[in-house]
Design goal:
CBS domain Like, 6-stranded mixed sheet, 2 domains, 9 helices, alpha+beta
Length: 289
């Protein structure tokens, strides 16, 4: 499949509309490699990952974007994270009774988008209600409500690949007042299979055949988890001595599994004593993965 694990930015030369296109292949396969999610959860997780990349590509900042879906039904959480280097990771939490065909978000489901800059004070969060079963529609609602700029979002996820497309009208007068409506109508003609199969250049050329579109050089997209033994140790310190000692008595060791990548971190009694005694993170023992 052409253009796998790449993100393209593009713009229309004759009117103020810009867009992004992304396809996840190896990135998506690695994200799924340690997960056994039901099909609708898997699909939504892939859509969220691709959407987070699209949104990050439209920003000028150094940091991380969090796209979080909170449901009140069997699906409790989907979280996708993308940084300014287009490194992605994602996780989901759900109950055993999650439907096998489709997922509803519940009456009070929410979509949260948060930006975390490198400076601890750099943080922005927007929240919109989730209605129906469509993440793309919720994202379009977010753009209309939070940015007052209309956007069109297309998302398609399968077991092998995820492809996503976004176009957004930018501020400013247009010499072609019908351009936005025309571009939307043209996207209505695009089939899901075409979105999944066509490379970015082919898609833009065929869908917007009569328009002048400038396609920029692609940027690589990849799966990358930031978990570390240092970070896990810092989290365990926050639990406090009493709780950690209780776990040691019950289980013999403290084990933590990263929700994003599935990596396991093990701490025996000596490790726990050391991390509680000072800020030094104990090195992994030979039996720790």
């Amino acid at each position: 499949m052409a253009d796998g694990d790449r993100l393209y930015r593009f713009l229309f030369e004759d009117f103020p509309i810009r867009g992004q296109w992304v396809r996840l292949e190896a990135t998506w396969q690695e994200a799924q490699s340690r997960r056994t999610d039901p099909e609708p959860v898997r699909r939504l997780l892939g859509e969220a990952m691709a959407a987070s990349a699209l949104l990050t590509a439209g920003l000028k900042f150094e940091g991380r974007l969090n796209l979080q879906i909170e449901g009140e039904g069997p699906l409790r959480l989907v979280l996708a994270q993308c940084d300014h280097l287009l490194h992605l990771r994602a996780t989901a939490r759900y109950d055993q009774g999650v439907p096998t065909d489709q997922i509803g978000f519940g009456e009070h489901g929410r979509l949260l988008l948060a930006l975390e800059g490198r400076d601890p004070g750099e943080r922005y969060q927007g929240v919109v209600p989730l209605t129906g079963e469509n993440l793309a529609g919720a994202l379009e609602h977010y753009f209309a409500q939070s940015e007052q700029l209309p956007a069109r979002v297309l998302l398609a996820a399968s077991e092998q690949i995820v492809t996503a497309l976004l176009i957004q009208r930018m501020p400013g007068e247009s010499a072609d007042p019908d351009a936005w409506n025309r571009c939307n109508h043209l996207l209505d003609t695009l089939e899901a299979a075409e979105l999944q199969q066509w490379p970015a250049e082919t898609l833009l050329r065929r869908v917007f055949a009569e328009e002048t579109v400038r396609l920029f050089e692609p940027a690589p997209v990849s799966f990358r988890c930031r978990c570390s033994r240092d970070g896990v140790a810092a989290m365990l310190r926050q639990l406090g001595s009493e709780e950690l000692q209780d776990i040691l008595r019950e289980q013999g060791s403290v084990s933590v599994t990263c929700e994003f990548c599935g990596r396991e971190y093990g701490f025996d009694a000596v490790d726990v004593g050391q991390l509680l005694a000072d800020d030094t993170v104990p090195p992994a023992s030979p039996s720790t993965h």
